[in-house]
Amino acid sequence: MFLRQLHYLVAVAEHRHFARAAESCRVSQPALSAGIRQLEEELKVTIIQRDRRFQGLTEEGWRVLKWARQTLDSLDGLRQEAALAQRISGGHLAIGAVPSALRAISTLADEYRRVIPDLTLEIVSLSTQEIARRLKERELHLAIAYTEHGVQQGFETLDLYRETFVLLSAESSNIAPERCFQWHELGLLPLCLFDRGMHNRHILDRCFQAAGVTPRVVVETNAPSIIHEEVRRGQIYAIAPVSALPDYFMDGGVRLNPIADQPCATISLIRLSQDNLPAVASAIWDHTQTLNLSY
């Protein structure tokens, strides 16, 4: 068995296409296919369902893929540990983040590159459920997600900050700049909210339910830019955590008002509970413990 065969398998699983997988591995498609067949022969299992095209992984294939990723991740960790004996100056880090952690991940990315100059980052926006899955499958090294209800067994967490929700309105609206709103008052406004697929929407729904009101939701979206545009026009209001707002929200056109009785919504850094994390991931985890984030 060769490591390149494991790389081939991971590439096919990611691209779900033999030609694109071969291109990403910088080999010919026949060479990639032959490598995977050799792996199947050595392990005496069928890994890939195939006709002329990639049809998916078999049940055994998914198990082999998990071990392949773990093996390659461990190898990368070994290489980084060797480099750590001198000094960590680079490495690769895959981070998943919930959409509402937009400002936090930007701040952390800048800080991580400052302390590790040659660090390369792969950052993906995912739901809390998808983050947990990808961490388990070792597709991510670290993640930033909600943990106010705890996390699944097998994960470690490092609390980063508690979200602060605000009311967004156009600067041209007649709302007093310093007015603090109650949840029952917010339920009377025409609102643009993040869609129900996002965890912080569930938090807002619980707040309205506790206040005994049904919100007037006229627009739902998963894009901060749409919220900004809808609010800026002056006909609709929005509720969002400050940590989810890009810098252009602060550049004029939109006003932020405080909300009383803030919900408990904790954002944390998450990793698998294991001893063989890549050196760069461990170093980033340790450095994050020295930071103080607030939004």
Automatic annotation (TrEMBL):
HTH lysR-type domain boundaries: 1-58
Pfam families per UniProt: HTH_1, LysR_substrate
Kinase recorded as keyword: no
MF annotations from Gene Ontology: DNA binding; DNA-binding transcription factor activity
GO CC annotation terms, alphabetical: cytosol
Coiled coil regions, renumbered to chain: none
Record family assignment: Belongs to the LysR transcriptional regulatory family.
Name of this chain's protein: HTH-type transcriptional regulator CynR
Designated gene of the protein: cynR_1
